[in-house]
Records
---
Amino acid sequence: MQIELSNKPRPLNQYPLYWAECFGTAPFLPMSRAEMDQLGWDSCDVIIVTGDAYVDHPSFGMAIVGRLLEAQGFRVGIIAQPDWQSADPFRALGKPNLFFGVTAGNMDSMINRYTADRKVRSDDAYTPGDIGGKRPDRCSIVYAQRCREAYRDVPIVLGGIEASLRRIAHYDYWQDKVRRSILADSKADLLLFGNAERALVEVAHRLAAGEVIGDITDVRGSAFFVDDLPADWSVIDSTNVDKPGRVEQPLNPYQIIDESVCPEDPDTDTAPNAEVKLAGKLAKVQQKLSKRLKTVVRLPAFDQVKRDPVLYAHASRVLHLETNPGNARALVQNQGGRKVWYNPPAIPLSTEEMDYVFGFDYARVPHPAYGDARIPAYEMIRFSINIMRGCFGGCTFCSITEHEGRIIQNRSQESILREIELIRDRVPGFTGVISDLGGPTANMYRIACRSKAIETACRRPSCVFPGICENLNTDHSALIELYRAARDVDGVKKILISSGLRYDLAVESPAYVEELVTHHVGGYLKIAPEHTETGPLSKMMKPGMGSYDRFKALFDRFSRKAGKEQYLIPYFIAAHPGTTDEDMMQLALWLKRNGFRADQVQNFYPSPMATATAMYHSGKNPLKRVRRDSESVAIPKGEKQRRLHKAFLRYHDPANWPMLRDALKRMGREDLIGNGKHQLIPTHQPRGTKPYHSPRRKNSDRGRLRKGRILTQHTGLPPRD
C-alpha cells in the first residue's frame, strides 16, 4: 500500500466539471423520483442520506456538500430522515452511480436525542414540527447499514460531526463505555472528518474517473481500513510521544507489557518546538515538517483503551496534539483485528474557496415537501450569516477543534455583503434585522498567527490559554469594518451579534467593544465565563474572571455612552470535570452578589472525543502528560452530586433549598444559611414547596446546535425584592 500526502491541495473551483454539469442547477436537490424526472435525470451520481430535514441553506451540512458536488457537475439527491426500519426508503432515488454520503446531520444523533441526564427529548429542532424520534440512535451506523442492504456494491462514505467526533475509539456517555470507531461499527468504506469539502470533491472526482474506493488512501481528512502499514513510512508508538501510566496495577505484576503499546526499540521522534522563532530556525522546522508527512503514530488499540481509562486519556491527548494540519502526523489504531488509518486533517479553505462554497445558489428555505411545517433550527438561522469557521480557543468541552479545526477560515467582506442582500431580496419574512454575523466565535474573524511558519509548526491546543499567545494578531479592525459596511446595506435596519463572544480577545480591542455595544446588542449580550473558580476553569481552558470584569467594565461604559440600558448574560456549566462542591458554592455566591438568577441550567455533557470527556472517563488530566502518578481530576459523576451542582446554580429556587441546606451543613458552611444579605439560602422552607423540575429545554440553543455543547441560560436581570 502506498500513501502519499500533500500540503498543496488543488483549489475547489479548479477541478474539471463532471459531464452531468449540462443539467444545470436544480431549484432544490431532489428528494423523490418525480423531482428527478422533472430535472431530466435517470439517476443520481451521489445520494446524501441525512438525519436532518433538508433545508437548502448554507448552515445545513447536506445543503453545503450537495450544492458543492452539484457545482462540480454531479447529480445529487437527498434522502432526509428516512424510515430506518427497512432498506426500502434508501432505494427511493434508485442506485447512486458513485456513492452514498451518510451523515447524522448538524449534531451528533445522541446529543440531539438525549439530555445531559440521559433522558429522551420529546423535540428535535432539525425536524419539521419539532417532533422527536425521527432518527435512530447513532443514526450514521444505522443509515450505513441500510444503504448496504439497499445496494450492496455501492461505496459508503461517512461524514458530518457525528463521524468526526467518533472516528477513533471513543467514550460513549450514554452506554458508559468505550466504543469502537464509527467506521468499524458502520462498516462504511471511507470516513471524512471535518467540514470535508476538500476531501469530498477529490473523492467524488476520483470515483467518477474509475478509481476503486479502497485505493483512495492519500486524501487528507479521511479514515479507512488498512491491512498492513506502508513500508516506506516511519511508525512510532504513541507512548513515545507521551508515556502513560495505569489507573491500577495489572492483575499480574509480572505481566509483559504488550509490545504494540511500548515497543522494544522506541522511536525518538519529537514534536516541533511550539515556540520556534523564524530567525535562524525556519529551515530546521521545515525539515521536521517534511519528515512528519511520512510518519504515522500508532495509538493504543481499542481493546486496550477500552479496559484502561488512563490509556484512553493518553490516546485522547495524542489525538489532540495531531490536529494542526501544518504538522499533524497520520494515526493508526487497531479496532479489534482491523486497523483504521487516519490521515492528517485537511488543509483549511482559503478565503476564495470559502466564498465559492457560500456563494452557491441556495434556495435558503426548507424543501417544499415540508409545506408549512416549522423547522426550529431553520427559524433560528434563516436571517443569520456565517462569516468564518474554526476556533483557536481550545475549550475542552467543545467539539470545534475536532471538527472545524483551530485555524480560522474567513469569507471576504464582499461575499458576506452579497449574502445580506440575498436575504433581503429572497428570504420570506425578512424585516430588516440580521440576527447574527458570526460563526463558532463571533470575534475571531480574520484573526490569526502573525507568522504562517510559526502557525504551521505550532502544537499548542489553544492560542488564548493560559494567556493570549504573543504571536496572535488580535486586531479587530477587519470585523469593525465589516459591521459598518453591513449596516450600510440598503434595507438593513439592525445587525445583531448572537454567536458566542471571546471576551478575553475583545478587551484587547476597546474600539471593537464600543462598536459592538453601540450598534449590535439588542438589550442583552450572551457571553460564556463558564465558571468563576480556578479549578474548573483550568480544566476548561477558559480565562479567569479578571477578563470578564474587564469586559463588563467596557460593556457598561460604552452602553452608558450610547445612552442604552443593556445587560450581559453570562453562561455557566455545572458539574464539569475539575469542579468540586466548594467551587459550585462559590459560583452561587458570585451569582447572588451580582444579581443573577438562572432560569435554565444544564450539567456538563460529555460529547464524544472532547478533552473534557477524557477527563470525565479517566479521572486524569490529558492537558498534561498522562502518567501513573499524574494529576487526578475531581469528577462530579453521580446523579446526586450532579443534581447538587445544578441546584447551586438555581440557589434562588425554594425547591432546591433542602438539598442545599444539607450540602452546606455537610461542608461546614452553615453560616450561609439564613436571611441575611450575604447568606445564600434562607433558614425556613415555604409551605407547599414542590420539588424542582428543569423547564422543558428546546433544541434551539445555538451553542448546542452548532458546537455540541450546552450552556446555562440566564435572565440577566436583578432579582425582584
Note: The chain has four domains: 1-226, 229-347, 378-513, 521-650+699-721.
---
Amino acid sequence: MKRIAALILTLLLLTGGMASRASASGMPLCAYIPKSASALHPASITYDPTGHYSGSVYYRNLREVSLSGDQRLDLVNIALSQVGYHEGNSVSQLDGSNKSGTGNYTEYGYWYGTRVLEQNSGFFYEWCAMFIAWSARQARIPKSIINNASYAHAGSNPYYFNVTFHPRGTYTPKTGDLVFFDWFATERNWDHVGIVAYVENNRVYTVEGNASDQVIMRQFSIHSYEIQGWGVPAYATSATNALSISNYSVPNRTLSCGSTGNDVRWLQAALLHLGYPTPVDGYFGANTQRQLKKFQSYKGLASDGVCGPNVRTAIKNALSSGGYSGASDPSAYPVPIRTLREGSTGNDVRWLQAALNKLGASLSIDGSFGPGTKAKVVWAQQKYGLTPDGVCGPATRARIISALGSSGGGGGGSNYPVPTRTLREGMSGSDVKWLQSALKKAGYSMSVTGYFGSQTKENLKAFQRSRGLSADGVCGPATRAKLKAIAGGYPVPTRTLKKGCTGNDVKWLQSALTELGYTLTADGSFGSSTRAKVIAFQLDNGLVPDGICGPATRAAILGKQ
C-alpha cells in the first residue's frame, strides 16, 4: 500500500496535480516541479529512495532541478540541490536534517549499498566519492564517464574514478571537473574529493559531500597545498563557463515562483556567486526562492522571495563589491595563519567574521576587519577569558576554533572536531576522524574511518612513544595536546631546514615558532627573518644557535607544543 501511495503521489507531482500550498506568512510556496515540462526537463530520481529521504527538502530540491543536457552543468546543479544535507547516526536520519550527526548515514550510502553493491542495506562509510557517483547518476551521466566510485582516487580500479588526472599546477579546472585533496600535503595520500563548481580569479569554488559531515560549498586558491590535483571526466557534452553570470541577461522584469528563462539563470548564478547555493537551471522554484529570501534577509530587505528592481540593484551592488559575501559557514574560508587586526582584509577575515557569527555575533561577512569586527573580537575575548585587545592572534584563534567544536574548516587543516573526550579502542565519531587525520599527517599509514580500531590504537601508541608519552593507545589530554600541535595544516619537516629552503615544511616551522611567541609570516620561504627567529628559539632553549632547524631543534619545538 505504501508503494501504491508513493506512486500516486509521484504521478500527482509530475502532472502538477497537487494543489499549491501557502506558507504561514501567506506567501505562496513554489511548486516543486516546473509546470511547463515542454520547456524544461525536470530531474527524476533513478532508484527507489528511502521514505526518510523522499520526505525531505533535499529530495524536493532534486526533483526541481531542470536537466540541460550539458553534462558538466547538470552534475554541478544536482550536487548544488543537496547543499545543506547532513549525515545522520541511523537509517531513520537519511533525510539529512540531523545537523550534529557523525555516523556516515546518508541517502547516498543507502543508494550505493543497495544499487551498486546490490546488497539489502546501505553502505554507510566515508561518502565524498559516493556522493559524486550518486549525483552523476541523477544527472543521467553514463557510468563510462563517471563511474560508481567509492574512493577519493583516480585510476583503473573500479572503485576509483576513471578520469584523466592532472596534478596541481598543470591544469586549469572547469565546471564539472573533480578536485582531489591531500589535506596534509604528503603527496602520497588521497584524502577527499569534490566537484568543481567554477573558477574565478584563481580561486576554485567547490561542492563537496562529507565535508564537515555534510554537503557544502567551499573555496580555495587553485594553488592550495591541500589540492593534490584535478580529475577530468570524458564528458560527451559540455559548455564552458556555464555558471558565469555574464552568460545570462540581467532581468528587466520582476521574477518570482514559476518564472523561467535566461534572466532566472542570471539570478541563480548571482546568488551562487554571492554564497547562496542554488542550481543554475532557469527555473525559479522553491530552492531559488529560499536562497533569495536568505539574501534579502542578510541585506535587510523585505524577505518576500521576489526579485524586483530594489532586490536586483542590491544583488548587482553585492556582486560589484567582490561577491561571495553571504556564505555563513566558516568552512567556506581558509583558517587564518596570520594575526588579524583592524585594517586586515581577505578571506581569512571572512573566516573570522563567519566564525564569530556562529558564536552569536552579528557581522557582515565582507572580508574587511573594521571597527565592528574589532568590537566582536573583544566581545569573544571577554566571553572566553582572554585579553580583550580586539586582535585575533594565535590564542584567540585557537579559542574560537575550540568554541566552534571543530578545526574551523577551510584551507588550514582537518574538517573534524577536536576531541573533548578521551578516545579509546571501540569508539566512533567525527572526533575519531580528527585523531586519525592527525596521525595520518604525522606520517602514520591511516584510513580516516571514524572508528577507533586496532590500526588506530597501534599507530597512536607509536606516536606516543615518539613524543615521550605513556604508550597506552588512549588519546587523553596530554596526547591530544601533542596531536593538536601537528594538526595545523603543514607537514612536520623530515629534512634539515636552513636559509634558502622553501616549502610547506618551512611553513610548519614558521607557524610553530609563531605559536611559541617568535612571530613570523608563514610564507614557506626560509629567509633572514626565519633564521633570526630560529636562533632566538635556540638561545632560549640551550641549543647551538646556528639558525638551522635540524633534528634537535625540531624535537625541541615539538616538545614545546
Note: The chain has a mean pLDDT of 82.
